[in-house]
Design brief:
Elements: H1 6-15, H2 20-34, E1 38-44, E2 47-55, E3 59-63, H3 70-73, H4 78-81, E4 86-90, E5 99-100, H5 106-119, E6 125-130, H6 132-144, E7 148-154, H7 166-172, H8 178-182, H9 187-197, H10 208-217, H11 221-229, H12 231-241, E8 248-254, H13 262-272, E9 275-279, H14 286-289, H15 291-303
Parallel strand pairs: 3-4, 3-6, 6-7, 7-8, 8-9
Antiparallel strand pairs: 1-2, 2-4, 2-5
């Protein structure tokens, strides 16, 4: 999810007609550069991936969800995490600036990340994925769990989720299909998605959401729709295969997640037979809404 720096943004709005998402992007670019986390590109096997890399320590692969890209999703977490870990933060295929000639499905996402890690000569790593990124993270565990030291799933029901329940999300948002909720087509739908994901509703200035849509959300609609539609068959296949060698795992969940309720976290907790940490006063993005507690939980688990 895109996080706008409103203290600066409102001043800019008053003094000029600047585009706030562009301003926010410049701020993020400077923040990453200041921390020594470099923007890089990778092309192989039909995949073109934009990613960021930097920090010290064991490798931690951070996987974003729908409605965002790698840079923005983890922007509030990188300062502390990069002091403890060597971070690799990719844009998933058909998000941000990554794309591929391969089919729009989970296998392509897993192949792209595996290829990127091999290219970066990473033999062992930790991995953390939020929302759709949690599905991808579990896919990585199925395909190369022997390389993963520890795995963190954040507000993602993974293999145990009944995909038919996605229809409930559409009803909750007065949308025809769940694709209409997550693959937004205008500024009003961006605002609806934000308010659905966060614990507290946001009050956005007029025009900001349309600018945000045009800057961040206006591409790859067909590919992202296909990713959602392919989930059901993939869920059944991945669940039947299981995880051959499951890494030590942790689930982190926002107490007030409206996208995936706590009951789904409990199902996944039993499936993975692992610990779960619930973060209060947080919705679907606890890494943003309660970043200090989130970072503390992550670091404590990964160093244990």
């Amino acid at each position: 999810m895109k996080n706008i720096t409103f203290s600066t943004a409102f001043i800019c709005l008053i003094l000029s007609a600047c585009n706030l998402p562009k301003l926010n992007q410049k701020h993020l670019d400077k923040k990453y550069a200041r921390l020594g986390i470099e923007e890089k590109r990778f092309e192989q096997n039909g995949h073109e991936i934009k990613y960021f890399e930097g920090g010290v320590g064991d490798t931690l692969l951070l996987v974003h969800g729908f409605g965002g890209d790698g840079q923005v999703t983890w922007a509030k977490n990188i300062k502390e995490l990069s002091a403890h870990y060597h971070l690799i933060i990719p844009d998933l295929l058909w998000f941000g600036e990554s794309k591929s000639s391969k089919p729009q499905n989970m296998d392509s996402q897993v192949d792209a990340l595996s290829s990127l890690l091999a290219f970066s000569q990473v033999d062992r790593y930790h991995i953390a994925g939020i929302s759709y990124g949690g599905f991808v993270t579990l896919g990585m565990a199925v395909h190369e769990g022997e390389k993963i030291d520890k795995m963190v799933i954040i507000d993602s029901p993974g293999f145990t989720y009944n995909i038919d329940l996605l229809d409930t999300i559409a009803v909750q948002n007065n949308a025809k299909t769940v694709e209409d909720v997550f693959v937004v087509k205008n500024g009003e739908e961006v605002e609806r998605l934000y308010n659905f994901a966060f614990y507290r509703d946001k009050n956005f200035p007029n025009g900001l959401m349309q600018d945000t849509y045009e800057f961040y959300f206006s591409e790859n609609h067909d590919e992202q729709t296909e990713l959602i539609q392919s989930l059901k068959a993939e869920q059944e296949r991945y669940l039947s295969n299981g995880i051959p060698k499951q890494p030590k795992s942790l689930i982190i969940w926002g107490e007030h997640d409206m996208v995936f309720p706590m009951s789904e976290a409990v199902k996944l907790e039993k499936y993975l037979n692992c610990e779960m940490k619930v973060i209060e006063k947080a919705g679907h993005a606890p890494n943003i809404e309660q970043l200090k507690e989130f970072n503390s939980i992550m670091i404590e688990f990964l160093k244990d």
